[in-house]
Amino acid sequence: SKKADMTMQKMTAGAQPEDDAGDEIAAINFDRSNKLPWMPRACVSHTPQVRESQTYPMVAPNFRDWKFNIESKVFSWNIASRPASLVLLDRTDEDIAARFVYSKYGTDATKGAEVGQLDIYSGYRSEEDGTVEWMVATCQIAIQHWKNMGRHYKNVRAIGGSGRRESAATVSSVSSTLSRRGIIRSISSTIP
After folding, report:
1. Distance (Å, rounded) from C-alpha 119 to C-alpha 183?
2. What's the average model confidence in pLDDT over 47-59?
3. pTM listed for this prediction
């Protein structure tokens, strides 16, 4: 079979990549041969330790968001601004499930620098490893897609005239509030 564009490994806490390759838990592929070149497509094959492998096809019909289904719910990763981020919307319940905020390096991060931080909000089974794994894998599709399109998002901490933190990226805004939920799990993403 074809080699995956990206793979996701689960390593033991504190292990170094040189010492522990980890267990492969997801394969991520972009579909470059579809009949509609204007509509990006990708697929995540997730193999959690406790269940059978699941495949999640993803599409970006309008280039702004990546839509996919998990069980009976429809989700999408959308670009948001202030700060530059990706927001995982639960379109079925009209709620925010997670938010990936780009670091000051963003997609330009190298040599293990942090690309950003993923916050998963309560009510989305964030205590389950399988949920965290599919959220990270699907988020990686959106991050890599925008990077491949030449959009290098990051958040530069600058104090403007208003004294607020300002974003280095100008992108579409998502009109939802994050203040109603507590953060359960926080994950930092890095580039090796």
Report:
1. 6
2. 80
3. 0.74
